[in-house]
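Re: the 162-residue chain
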Amino acid sequence: MVNYNDHNLITFSNSLLKHFGVKTFHQTEPEVDKILKGHKKVVVMLFDGMGRNIVRLHLKDKDYIRSHYLCTINSTFPPTTTAATLGFLTGKYPIETGWMSWTQYFEEYKRNIILFKNVDYNTDEKLEPANIAETLLPTKSILELVKENNEDVTVFDWSKEL
């Protein structure tokens, strides 16, 4: 059985915060703390759905990802794309951010909204002008926190650059 409180995306993100001298929200990941020590440049890639079993099934022992395996980092609970991604990006659990699933109902708008897309799930209508999810469930990413606390550190979200 998976223990969603240890070795997860949240503890991983809090290790990144700690590494850059930012106050953490939760415990850190000891294995990640150790590997980050002494490094100034850090690149993190998050692959949705790329769990340990998928890696074992599709990659050979000599393949880069398997041969450089450090430890298993579990998802969040619930282990949905939205909850896990926001958990990683904020260093907070889904219960803290309110981002639980791909689509959530918002009574204020009487709509089921696809959070990442800001689209009405039932009509496919793009909701303008404001991002409703960000308005009702505001978050601050660990990238923003690192940038705010380290004027000499360059931080960017490559997914936003694409």
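The longest strand covers residues 103-106.
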